[in-house]
Amino acid sequence: MEILKREQGIIILNQYGKSYIRFMAGGISDKLYQIEISKEELNLVMNSSINGELIVNRYMNLEPGLPEGLEDRVIIDYLSFSTDYSDRRKQAILNKFHKYGDIFNEFYYYVLREIFEDGVVESGYYASKLVKEFNLSPLDAYNYLIYLREDTQNAIAGLKDGLQKK
């Protein structure tokens, strides 16, 4: 991730081969979102021709329900950048993560920041520990947290017997 510009609570960045505008929004509590922006919009903001907040407002006015889908869009961008999965498989991954809000949110924030939060612990394991100690990608680590939650005994046996240590 490369941060290009910060202004009034908005961050302009390049990540996963695209340009984004990142901002806080929310009802009960603030949530971090990011929207893919065009090269033209990027140039306008970078040249200070327009304020990034205007771009965010334009997107929000065009699609009032936009915030609900932004998390999924960012995760799909990450999956498109880091895997060669089909669209169907990417959607299946999203659906699986949506079953577990805590794991979904932590994975979402990993994708945004590229930093592990390690708030979700299953049977003594958290995402960064799975990445560090076993041959797992971040995506695999969060999927393994789901496996640990759904089938603890077999998942732990897999860690002890089947997964190769780095």
Read across the widest sheet, the strand sequence of neighbours is 1-2-3-4
- Please summarize the sheet with the most strands: 4 strands, antiparallel
Count of folded domains: 2
Oligomer state equals single chain
Strand content: 15-25%
**How many individual helices?**
8
Structural class estimated from helices and strands: alpha+beta
Contiguous runs where pLDDT drops below 50 for at least 5 residues? none
Principal-axes shape call: elongated
Distance between the termini: 25 Å
Write a structural description.
- It is a single chain.
- The chain is an alpha+beta fold and 166 residues long.
- Helix 3 packs across helix 5 and helix 7 packs across helix 8 (152-161).
- The protein has a four-stranded antiparallel sheet with strand order 1-2-3-4.
- The protein has two domains: 2-64, no CATH class; 70-161, no CATH class.
- It contains eight helices and four strands; from the N terminus they run E-E-E-E-H-H-H-H-H-H-H-H.
- The chain has helices spanning 39-46, 52-62, 66-82, 87-98, 101-113, 127-133, 138-150, 152-161, and strands spanning 2-7, 10-15, 18-25, 31-36.
- The two termini are 25 Å apart.
- Helices cover 55% and strands 16% of the residues.
- Strand 2 (10-15) and strand 3 form a beta hairpin.
- The radius of gyration is 18 Å and the shape is elongated.
